Amino acid sequence: QKKRRAATARRQHLKSAMLQLAVSEIEKETAAKEVEKQNYLAEHCPPLSLPGSMQELQELCKKLHAKIDSVDEERYDTEVKLQKTNKELEDLSQKLFDLRGKFKRPPLRRVRMSADAMLRALLGSKHKVCMDLRANLKQVKKEDTEKEKDLRDVGDWRKNIEEKSGMEGRKKMFEAGE
Q1: SS3 for 1-49, per residue?
Q2: Residues 61 and 43 in one domain
């Protein structure tokens, strides 16, 4: 029990000491960042002194405009680099998905569109050919085969019964049996 209390007390003491060290390190980092910021601003943004004459003011405005242009060019370059790296990241993540074999299926919408409308949407004003798919189909005529005729004749059972009824039907059956 005594050893456990001593161990927990030591752990708590070490934990508080680590937290104090972390707080002091964070304070040092924030102070260093502030100093770095002040140095950067002093280097890149000299204090503004307004001249008295009109010509000097015009010169100052020209310098400021030139500075603004250069900063805009830098900003544009960094934006382009950022877009390029984002695109590369997307491509690499897509390749990673492809290699894993897990594909995200995009939600598909059902679209009712005829072939003409589809070609018009794809080709625009270049599309002039009408796409009637049924017009180009061949007409196929069914030929009656003897097998089908026999099946039709056998299928009509009323006709067969009427033929076999009476004396003529019995005579035919008798002659067929011989």
Answers
A1: CHHHHHHHHHHHHHHHHHHHHHHHHHHHHHHHHHHHHHHHHHHHCCCCC
A2: no
